[in-house]
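Hey, can you fold this?
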Amino acid sequence: MPHATPAPVANRLLGALPRQVQQRMQQRCEPVELVYGEVLCESGEHIRHVYFPTSGFISLVTVLKSKSSLEVGLIGDEGMLGVSLALGVDTSPVRALVQGSGSALRMPAAIFRSELERSPALRHDLDRYIHVLLAQLAQTAACTCFHVIEARLARWLLMTHDRAHADHFYLTHALLSEMLGVRRSGVTRAAGELQKRKLIHYSRGDVTILDRKGLERASCECYAAVVADYGRFFG
C-alpha cells in the first residue's frame, strides 16, 4: 500500500522548504491548539518546544523587573517561535504569549536541533528568517522611540490583521497598552482617532478593520519596511 503524502503545510516558513524536508519536518511535529492568553514560554526559561503557527499568532513580550512590559514582535504563519535554538541558545529572551487563538505544529527542541544539523536547506531558511525577525525587533525599537501613538497603533493593527487572516479580531485595552508601551488612556485616544476616521471599529476589545488601505496610510513607515524585508527573502 503506498504511503499517504502529508497535506501541504499551512506555515509559510515550512512551506518554503524543499518538499522532502518539508514533509519530514511535518511528520516530526504534532498539531496543537494555541489558546488565547496562554504563555508558551517565559523569559529565561529553557525552550522545550518550537512552534510553527498555522493559524493564530504569538506575541513576543519583554518584561522588566518593575513588571512593565512591551510587545517587541509578533509571530504568525509566516514564522516560528524558538529561533534561539538555531543560534545555539536554549533559553528564551522573551515571554511568548498567544495573542490570537488558532493552531500550530509543535516540535520538541531536541528534534529541531537534530533537523538543523541534518538539513542545510532548513538552516538556510532559518538564517534568513532570523534576519527578518531581527529587522522587525530593530524597527519596533525605532518605532517606539520616534513615532506617535496613533501611527504605531495602526502599524500593530496591520501586523495583527496580516496574521489573523480576518477583518475582525480581539485585542483588549490592556494588551494594546502592552503592545505600544503606553497608558490605556493613550490607547483610548489613538483608537478613538482611527475610529473617527472610519478606519476601524473598536468596542470592548473587539476590533474590526473597516479600511485597510486607509490604515496603511495612517501607519508609520515601519510597517511597510518590515513587510518589504520579509518579501525580499520569502516572496
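Oh, and this one too while you're at it.
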Amino acid sequence: MPTAVIRLHPEDAVVIARSTLLPGAPVAPGVTAAERIPAGHKVAVRALAEGEAIQRYGQIIGFATQPIAPGAHVHVHNCGMGDFDKDYAYSQDARPTPMANEGLTFSGIRRPDGRVATRNYIGILTSVNCSAHVAGLVADVFKRNPFTGHDPLAAYPNVDGVVALTHKTGCGMTDGEPLRLLRRTLAGYARHVNFSHVVVLGLGCEVNQIAGLLEEQRLAGRIRNMDIQSMGGTRKTVEAAVAFVHEVLAESNEVRREPVPVSELTVALQCGGSDGYSGVSANPALGAASDLLVRHGGTVILSETPETYGAEHLLTRRAVSQEVGEKLVGLMRWWEEYTAREGAEMNANPSPGNKAGGLTTILEKSLGAMAKAGTTNLVDVVRYAEPVTARGFVFMDTPGYDPVAATGQVAGGANLVCFTTGRGSVFGCKPSPSIKLATNTPMFQRMEDDMDINCGTILDGDETVQECGQRIFETMIRTASGERTKSESFDAGGAEFAPWVIGATM
C-alpha cells in the first residue's frame, strides 16, 4: 500500500503529498500535517529557519522566506529563490554508455536519401504571415474530418495528410539574427524526413523573401514555391498550390513501411502543464525510456533552457567534454541577460497552473524537467532549430513555451515527440507524432481521450519507474511504426507550429 507522502531523497526537508492531506495526517515519524496539503504539494518534515536552503531530490529548490515549522505547507508563501554556488564539475560523471546487444527495429519509411520517417505528410509552409490564410485554404481542400469520417485522401492510404504550418512573422523584422532564426526553422521543416513534398507560399514583398530563404538554406530544387502577388492573387495561388498537391499525391502514396533500426529515431522530450508529480512519475519514466533509446543507438533532444536553469550543473557533469558543458553554461548566461533586459526574471517561468499543481520555483521545476533526459552522457549542445547530427542525448536551446520549444526540436530533426503533462495538455506537433504521458491517474482518467500513457501508476504503487519507462519505450516503437496517438485522432498539430520570435517588431 503506497504511503501518504513521497520522499525523494533522505536529505530532503520536504516530502510530496500523494493525495490531499488533511490536518493531523502523518507525514514523517513524529510529524503530522499542520494544515491541509493539496495533492502534489510539499510539506515540511523538519523545522526550517528563515534563509535556510530547502532541498527536494537532494538538490536546492529554494530558500525559506520565513521560519517553517514541521508539518507546514511549503510553497510560494514561504519558499523563494536565492543565490547559491554551483559546481559544474565538467565531465566528472561522464561514462561510456553500455549499448544494447539486440537489434530492435520499428516499421519506418526509408526515404531515397537513406533517412527514415515515422509519418508521411505533404507540407505547406509560409514565408510570412500574409500568406497564412492562403496556405490554410489549400490544406482545407484535403482535410480529413475525424468526426464525420469525410476523407478526401481515401485513395491515398499511405499519405498521412496535407498540413499547412503558418506563423505570425516573416516581415516587420530586421535582416539579422531574427531572420536567420526563422529561415533556419523553416528550412528544418522543409527538409524534414516526415514530409514527402513541400510547397512554400509567400506574399511577394516580405522581408523573408523566398529566394533569400532558398539561397541561404540551400533549398533550391528541394521544394516548390510561389508567391501570391506574382501568381495573381488568392484564387490563382490556391488553385496552383492545390494542383501541386494533386500532382505529387500519387508519388507520395508509393511509400511502404519496412523494418528499420530503432537507432533511426530522434525523439523530442517535452513537458507542459507540469505539476508536483512531473518530476516523480512521468519525467523520470520518460528518462528511463530515453536511456533505453540511447542504448539502442537513438537520439533524444532535451530543450527548454529556462526550465533547465538551476539544474544545469547536473548536466555539465555528464557532458562528454568541457567544451560541450561550457556551451550549456553559456546559454544560461545568455538567458539571464535576456530576461534582465526585458525586465523579467528566470523565476517567472513556473506558470499559475504549475504552481497550482505544487511547483514553487524554477529550480524545482528544472530539476524535475531534466529527468526526461535520463542518465546518459550529454553529447552535444545546439542552437534553436539547428540540425541534430550527434547520436545520444543532445540539448537544444529553446524557450520554455512548449509550442516554440517543440517547433525547434522538430526543425532539428525529431521524428517523434514525447510530451509529459500533469495538468493536461492537448498538444500535437505535425509532421511528427506526439505521445502524451500523464503524471497522475486522476488527470489521465479525466482526459483519457487525450492521454496516451498513464504514468500515475508509479504514484499508485502499481509500477516502478523502470517498468513504466519500458512501457513508454515500447509505445515509442509502436507509434513510430504507424500507430496513431491520441492527438493525431483529433488531427492536432498544425496550429501549434510556432517559430521562436526574437528581436524588435518593426
